[in-house]
Structures are given as structure tokens and as C-alpha cells.
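U., I forgot to send this yesterday:
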Amino acid sequence: MRLARALAIAASAFLAATDARADDARAVDALNAPGAVIKEESKSWKPVFDAYVAMSPPPEVKGGLASTGIWPGMPEWAAVKAWASANPGMGAALLDARKSVAFAMPYGRGKVPQQFVDKGVFIGIGDGTAVCFTDVAYLKPLGTIQAWTVAEMYRLGEEKRFDEAFDLGIACMRLLRQVADQHLLAEKTAAMQGLGDMASVQRDVLQTFLDAVPVETLERLARNGYPMIRAADAERLRRLDMPEGDRVLALALIDQVFDAQGQPDPVKFAAAMAAFQARREPMGTFGATRRWAEIANVHASADATRAKLTNIYDDWWRRWRAGYYDKILDFPTVISKTNPVRSAMVLAVTADLTKLFAMRQWINAELNGTSVAFGVAASYRKDGRWPPSISATYSVPTLKRIDFDPWKNEIPRWSYELAGSPRTMDTAFGPLQVSGSIIYAIGADREDGIAKKASADGQTGDFVAWPALRAVSRGATTK
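Result:
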């Protein structure tokens, strides 16, 4: 809520402006206000992107270079491995960023060095037509950094430098967790997706090198590595902020397209909203300007539109702070009850944040499941056999609080099966034969499917944290 108040106070400075370019500048100042209190040396964005700008270009990979698609058996592995080895500066920057307080990348092209803009490392706010247009260009370079991290983890793993490999993976995850505290929905969504993907990759690497990773390394990572991505989050990502910056931009747009009497300016309103729709729906914008001009005649006033926007965000805030099983989550949202004509502008520029709720549970499963998997693997490496239960690992390698299934209400512990012989599991990678320890969460349907059907995000089946199914589909064995 402190972030919300800071942004709201800063936003009030530009709500009287009507010129699009002036709005852009004032919106940038409002979005940057919360980060202004953080010392520059405590921000991670610039050192990491300094290292990115200095990197050599990544090799061409069929289908694109994605973090979850990199592994030693890929056709281009030799080139990818060489690229990872040739850019040690990125590893040093990620490891050094662990001591940073926040990512805190500034908004606005003019707030970053020109060489960053040239490399696509910036956040554009507004385009002179509508202040709510954003170009979060740095997300593509951020994806390249994730891909480099995975490549380097596997390269180090091949050299049996496992502490270095997993420490680097955790450093990248901490950076992504910092990015998830940025203020725009696009940033938060991309960072959350990246965080979940990188957590899953840690288990892929462990599965690939299972019989070589030292017990001490696994115990350290299970106890003080993955649970400490951001210690204040505990096991539920309690401190993950809402994307409050989108509200700031929506407020600025309201001021931009309403006249001095608080009514929609037909020309500005229609032009801005038609342009906004064209970006969202390139194939469905025929006649959009005319339709928005007609809506302007019956649309709610500026004050009513601001009030509706506030009500929508307040509703999301209450739901975001509620527990996973709070009854408020079953009630209709304010946005679902909003008049589609009188508040057409608000509905157009306000994203439905429901998907963030599902993503937060998935990321909790990825993070907690990774800690539990490393703890169980430590027990396996230490005793030469898989433990009879997850609780058998509590005393040494894992923390009991991390044994938390985010989809369970009562006794929210991960489900565990010890398969003495291979059994078939239906997965996103096709049917797989798995044995040994099987660690799974029940998924969004809240029904225990005994891990017969595994879902990558827990939405259409049980979420399997171990074995690492993507690695198994590539040939890594289960035992």
C-alpha cells in the first residue's frame, strides 16, 4: 500500500495537464517517484544491463533462444555453450546484483543512457497520441539474460562446478524477483513467468546431473538457496506488489481526453481510444474511431471515470491481500459488474488481473517445489535411496514451512509417492516413465489426481515438481 500511496501522490502532479507530450513527461516522473528514494548503488538494473550491452550476440537457434529450450543435447549446444563461456561479465553482474535493494529501472527513454536505448534497454511511456501506450523494450534483453544463465548453468554442470552453476541460477531468479516489483503489468507478468521458468530449469539441471551433485551443495540450496529468493516473501509471495503503474497511466489518459467541463472531448477521446484498440486488436479496429466518437456522447464524466478506476483497483487490492481461500475471491469482481458503455474507456485500459492470481500460485509451486525437490534429492544422495516421505527430510536439508502446496486448503503439504517400479505419467511432453520419488501439488482443480496427469502450470492436472519432467523427456533418467 505504501507504493500505491506514493504513486497516487506523485500522479496528482500531472492530472491537470492536457497536452499529450507533457503528460508523457509527468507520467514518467510519477512512475519514477517511488524509486527516487533508493540510492543508485543499491539498484541492480544498470550494472546488469551494462553487462548485457557488453555481451556478444547470442547464436542463432531454431525456434528462438528460450531459457526452457536450452540443454546440452540441443543441436546448437556447441555454439550456445561457447557463447555462454565468452561472456563471464554477465555472471559477475548477476552475482553482484544479489546485494541490491531493488531493480528500480527508470521509466522513460530519456532516463537511460543512449547506448541502452540503441540496444533496446528502455521503458517507453506514451507516443504523443496516448500516454497509456508503453514500450517495455527491456523485457527482450531480460529474456536473453535468462537464456545465458541457463546455458552457463549447464556448461558449469558439465565441468562439475555445481556450486557456481546453482548460485548463478539463484542470482538470476533474485533479479527476476526484483523485476516483479516494477510497476507495470507487462513487467510484472514477464518477470513472474521468467521466475517460474527459471525455477523449473533449476530442477532440470539437477535431474541432468543428479548423481554428481554433492550432498552438501543440495542441502545448502534446499535450506538457504531457493527459500531465500526473497526471504520476506516466505512461502506465499506475500510481498509481491500489484501493478500500480497502470493506474497512474490510466489516470493520465483520463485527463488527456476529457475537456475542462469533465466531459469526453469527442475528437481526442475517439482518436486516443481507437489507437489504443488498434494496438490491442489489429484485426478488429474497422470503424473504431467512429464507434468511440459515439461512445463519447454517452460516456461517464471524468470524475465518475476516475472513481470507477479507483473502485476496480481497490477491489483488486483487497483480493490480492486475501488468502488463497478467502471467500472474497468467489465474489464477482467490480470490473465484471462495470457498465460496458458508460465506463468503456476504463474497461479498455484496465487489464483483468485475475491471471496474476493464478500465476502467483504457480510461482509458489515452482519455488517451494524446487526447495523440496533439492531436499529430497539431498536425502537420496546421502542415503543412496529415496526418502519414505518429505517430512523425513525436515531436520536437515529442507524447511518445513516450504513444504507448502499453494492449491491445498487444509494440511497444505506437498503430496509424495515413492514409486518402486516405473509408471506412466501423462505430461505436456507426452507419456513418460517415471520412478523413485514423485513430488506433486494437487493443482487448480484441488483434486488429487495421484500425479497421473501432470500440468506445467497446475491448471489442468497435478503440478509435478519432481522428477523434472522436461529433463526426463530429454533423456535424463529417474531412479
